[in-house]
């Protein structure tokens, strides 16, 4: 308003404004409609310089123009081009006030302007971006008393400023809104945000602590877009080649997660609860505002018929191998001595010789045994978070991997696998590893005693 006042005053002193005289008549709109006026005041008539826009501003500045008044204009000078003067002044005011309508974070026109308690205005999204990093106002450095995910109910937009923007520059505002909308489109086909932190599993709950600013932004965008989904990938610190992607900083296969619940902390960090939707493979990747985005391809299991054929083929191959081994045994020389290892470690399962049902039964038996032994990784808190052990062999590997206390890299093959049987074999191999480690710990502490 200070800029407008200064520019109108400067305009009044020009020759063009001095030559234009208007008789301005202000009257209550109810009187014009034939209704008895609610105000017992005389009609105000003024002769002013500068055209309709400058004259109306002058009457308002003098306090003689009520917000519900009607104004009529009568030129008093010959050859007055009031419309040309009005358009010129309005265009000049738009140019000079343009900088005042820019957000000091994104330097674009205010979009959903939000005025803070310290009196500074920013785009609503820019306030969110600021809160991703700190709770300090970018201009005056005062503490912002706003929640990290402030919405229109908690902190409504500046209505007056919104009306001014839409009235003064509707085309620019429409373009600004389109640009903001395009921001959610990511990088074209790279339309899936990727959180590189850990493994997630289909149908299983995954809990995440979000504290980095780039991932705060990513999660907020996922929620605001309405999809509430993002991909989670395991970091690849050794940069092992990942197919066509090469030595990228993440493993190629991951899980698409759906955000179920979110809890914000006062400092902007958040805890989110998600559930696995499906597995995917990254085909292409890029970066958007510091976090990874990618083009992904869904990964599904082979059909039931293919599963049965796979098991039958493995059992047939095993049978042929055993027949050959038996023949070699009968052909062995007398007094043949076995060189089998007699270590005290638990014998590992021969997963290739086990049926799919036997693999599932071995996993279930192991979990029941450990639960009877009150293993810490099967405590009531863990089961409350991840649920009870599923009775479906399709779901069992995902649940088992989520609760099993082994490094995520050891479980990664489960995400790559497209066969239930293969995943059950991996689970049995993992439980054998757990059993061996427990035996080593028992031996070590036994020696100490």
Automatic annotation (TrEMBL):
> What is the residue range of the signal peptide feature?
none
In what residue span(s) does the Lon N-terminal domain sit? 181-435
Q: Which SMART domains match?
A: LON, RING
Task: Identify the stretch(es) annotated as Disordered.
Answer: 329-349
- Keywords, sorted A to Z: Metal-binding, Zinc, Zinc-finger
Tell me any Pfam family this protein matches.
Answer: LON_substr_bdg
Indicate what this protein is called per its UniProt record: LON peptidase N-terminal domain and RING finger protein
SUPFAM superfamilies in UniProt: PUA domain-like, RING/U-box
GO MF annotation terms: ubiquitin protein ligase activity; zinc ion binding
Q: Which domain of life is it from?
A: Eukaryota
The RING-type domain covers which part of the protein?
Answer: 103-141
